[in-house]
Design goal:
Residues 76-107 are annotated as: Disordered. The protein has 107 residues and is mainly alpha-helical. The chain has helices spanning 2-8, 13-25, 32-44, 49-61, 65-76, 85-94.
């Protein structure tokens, strides 16, 4: 069903989110193509906090701290409150002040 929805509308936000979430529901790591879908969503709907949080978490998990900071900052430190604000701020703290974790290169 998800694959069919994605074929019908390859840039559709809902099929891309469903595809990404299908891996979490299966207890599997999302492949790069699913993460690329999150990048597409953030690019097409930059003000939407949930996709930014999802992508930011994925980037933190992959130790891509600079990219995670760029993704999470608008939600964590933005002017609007949302349910995603506190979790985004918590993830942002994991990346370190300059986007590099202590003892790691960050990218």
């Amino acid at each position: 069903m998800i694959a069919r929805a994605n074929r019908l509308n390859p840039d559709g936000i809902l099929p891309l989110i469903a595809y990404y979430n299908s891996f979490a529901l299966a207890g599997e790591a999302a492949p790069d193509v699913a993460v690329d879908g999150l990048f597409k969503i953030v690019a097409s709907s930059p003000a939407a906090p949930k996709p930014r949080l999802m992508l930011g978490k994925e980037l933190v998990d992959r130790d891509l701290d600079r990219e995670a900071r760029k993704t999470l900052l608008p939600v964590a430190r933005g002017p609007f409150d949302s349910p995603e604000k506190a979790p985004s701020a918590a993830l942002l703290r994991k990346t370190g002040k300059d986007g590099e974790r202590a003892g790691k290169g960050g990218n």
